[in-house]
Design a protein that fits this description.
alpha/beta; 8 strands; 45% helix; 10 helices; 4-stranded parallel sheet; TIM Barrel; globular
Amino acid sequence: MQTHYELLQRLIAGKIIAVVRLDSGDDLIQVAEALKAGGIEAIEFTVPTPNSLEMINQASAHFGDEVIMGAGTVLDPETARAAILSGAQFIVTPTLNLETIELCRRYGKPVIPGGLTPTEILTAWQAGADMVKVFPASVGGPAYIKAVLAPLPQIRLAPTGGVSAENAAAYMQAGATGIGVGGKLVDKGAVANKDWGAIRVEAQKLVAAVG
């Protein structure tokens, strides 16, 4: 089992968290294989997806330490605990919930809570967040990331929402520690057509963009 420190260092080094939001969990392993082939090893699978916890468990067993499988769109500590017990190695939330941060710290798993305002971002950091998911990042763009980090340079920010291969470099240059990319990376049409090669190519583009 990887430690909290080891998991966090891999997330930071990888720079990219693929946000996988599917209509069902049936294709998760194939999508994850395509992302891994494209150079992305951190995958956030959203828990509202039917059978998400079962699929996280299966994917974690399938990949072992080769892929860091996390749970996303986690709204409360109860769901976070269930996801961790199912094999999730990190937790991502869309909003700020202090009890969820506390739960993840207790279990030794990296937690990336969502926040948008400087107050939310700092509150999350002070509560023990490993990174803060700036969501939706498209509201302010890279300029907003740079502006927030001016007075708060110690905080690791992971902008998510509207991030793609086209603007990923700008977010990293603005000071982001990492990025979360969903629909621009894992296209639902490609999944429906089982075009895993298209997902791999998009992953490669994104990896190249962040350097």
